[in-house]
Amino acid sequence: xxxxxxxxxxxxxxxxxxxxxxxxxxxxxxxxxxxxxxxxxxxxxxxxxxxxxxxxxxxxxxxxxxxxxxxxxxxxxxxxxxxxxxxxxxxxxxxxxxxxxxxxxxxxxxxxxxxxx
Length: 117
Known about the structure:
Blueprint: E1 2-7, E2 10-13, E3 18-26, E4 33-39, E5 46-51, E6 58-60, E7 68-73, E8 78-83, E9 92-99, E10 106-107, E11 111-116
């Protein structure tokens, strides 16, 4: 079982960068596929980026390709989301999830990202 806690959110201006972190505790983090999700008010949850357990496979939503980068450090049990060239439409609550063979067995509470135009 994993416990996940996100950090790094905040209020920034369009064009700025933020780096989100998702710290995990529990067993077998390195066996879990991980992902970042976001949900804006009145919108459905969107899968922003995913990363396989070994970091070799990554995927991104079209809306963030070329701007966001997902990475992980299994030794530190942490997943990162580097967000560059932020836009106002990136404003949402960002949360991480993980699982073995999926991305949503476990969830964190989320961190707010607000981008002003």
